[in-house]
Amino acid sequence: MTRFISDRQIYEMAVLKLAPSAKTRLWIATADIKDMYVEKPGSREMVPFLRILADLLKRGVGIRLIHAKEPGPAFRQDFDRFPGLWGGVERVLCPRVHFKCIIADGLRAYFGSANLTGAGMGAKGENRRNFENGLLTDDPALVEPLAEQFDAVWRGAHCSRCGRKQYCTDCPLEGN
């Protein structure tokens, strides 16, 4: 099933349901990443999204994160509150990444305009959110090419010709 989602639905469907439902792996790509607070699954308690990721790691879920720029100090401070994230989240910084997606277990995905920020996909109030949209799908014809795009960036398939190597601290090419 493929479904168009927008605004608050992105938070409800992609962040609160899709990401925490991952059983084996969760892949996230975003241009911008900020400290984002969400409702803890099964609770009304607001917690950093990083806590959701830390809980997934404790359950044995592998997490890969691609982002385009270094997050701000609030994100880094929250990151430090969850020591399991340091060794658990595999991360690549690629300044050319502008696509946004969440892929759970290679079977279900959100992709669209929302960055991994409170205004993009977080629990911000209606008058403080960006106008966003995207697709939520389990259609292999959509999930597989999205996962391939993610994996190509992850393994550095574009690095030799990207032209931004001097800004890329995580370029997998030899001699970086």
**How many domain regions?**
1
Low-confidence stretches: none
* Rg from Cα: 16 Å
Q: Please summarize the sheet with the most strands.
A: 7 strands, mixed
The fold-level CATH name is Endonuclease, Chain A
Strand order of the largest sheet: 1-9-8-7-2-5-6
Shape: globular
Model description:
Helices cover 30% and strands 24% of the residues. The chain has 176 residues and is an alpha+beta fold. The chain has a single domain, classed as Endonuclease, Chain A (2-Layer Sandwich). The strands form 2 sheets. Strands 1-9-8-7-2-5-6 form a 7-stranded mixed sheet, sandwiched between helices. A two-stranded antiparallel sheet has the order 3-4. Strand 3 (37-39) and strand 4 (46-48) form a beta hairpin. The protein is globular.
Keywords:
Endonuclease, Chain A; 6 helices; two-stranded antiparallel ribbon; alpha+beta; 30% helix; seven-stranded mixed β-sheet; 176 residues
Give a summary of the structure in a few sentences:
The protein is 30% helix and 24% strand. It has one domain (2-157): 2-Layer Sandwich (Endonuclease, Chain A). It has helices at 8-18, 49-58, 73-80, 84-88, 118-121, 140-154, and strands at residues 2-6, 25-30, 37-39, 46-48, 62-67, 89-93, 100-104, 108-112, 133-137.
SSE layout:
Layout (H helix, E strand, L loop, with lengths): L1 E5 L1 H11 L6 E6 L6 E3 L6 E3 H10 L3 E6 L5 H8 L3 H5 E5 L6 E5 L3 E5 L5 H4 L11 E5 L2 H15 L22
Parallel strand pairs: 2-5, 5-6
Antiparallel strand pairs: 1-9, 2-7, 3-4, 7-8, 8-9
